[in-house]
């Protein structure tokens, strides 16, 4: 992949969905991020990805964890821009 990530777009989506403002996402907020990114996963898939993304097992998804997850899903920063349009 040749995409040069700036971090701005993903961080914007992350911050918008982070209702608690604590720089981490619970399961519901995680679902909102997926909606924002145009990823239509089933509830079961969201739960599965959430557990997989939570690599430090604190029950929340950090921006770094979110980014890692999305990269394993073949997602790229550029996708956010086009999905937003
Ligand atoms: Ca975590």
TrEMBL record:
<dbReference type="Pfam" id="PF13202">
    <property type="entry name" value="EF-hand_5"/>
</dbReference>
<dbReference type="InterPro" id="IPR011992">
    <property type="entry name" value="EF-hand-dom_pair"/>
</dbReference>
<protein>
    <recommendedName>
        <fullName>EF-hand domain-containing protein</fullName>
    </recommendedName>
</protein>
<feature type="domain" description="EF-hand">
    <location>
        <begin position="41"/>
        <end position="76"/>
    </location>
</feature>
<dbReference type="InterPro" id="IPR018247">
    <property type="entry name" value="EF_Hand_1_Ca_BS"/>
</dbReference>
<dbReference type="InterPro" id="IPR002048">
    <property type="entry name" value="EF_hand_dom"/>
</dbReference>
<feature type="domain" description="EF-hand">
    <location>
        <begin position="5"/>
        <end position="40"/>
    </location>
</feature>
């Amino acid at each position: 992949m040749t995409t040069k990530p700036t971090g701005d777009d993903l961080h914007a989506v992350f911050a918008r969905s982070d209702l608690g403002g604590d720089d981490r996402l619970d399961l519901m907020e995680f679902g909102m991020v997926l909606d924002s990114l145009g990823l239509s996963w089933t509830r079961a898939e969201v739960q599965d990805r959430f557990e997989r993304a939570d690599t430090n097992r604190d029950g929340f998804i950090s921006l770094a964890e979110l980014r890692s997850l999305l990269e394993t899903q073949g997602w790229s920063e550029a996708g956010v821009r086009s999905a937003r349009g």
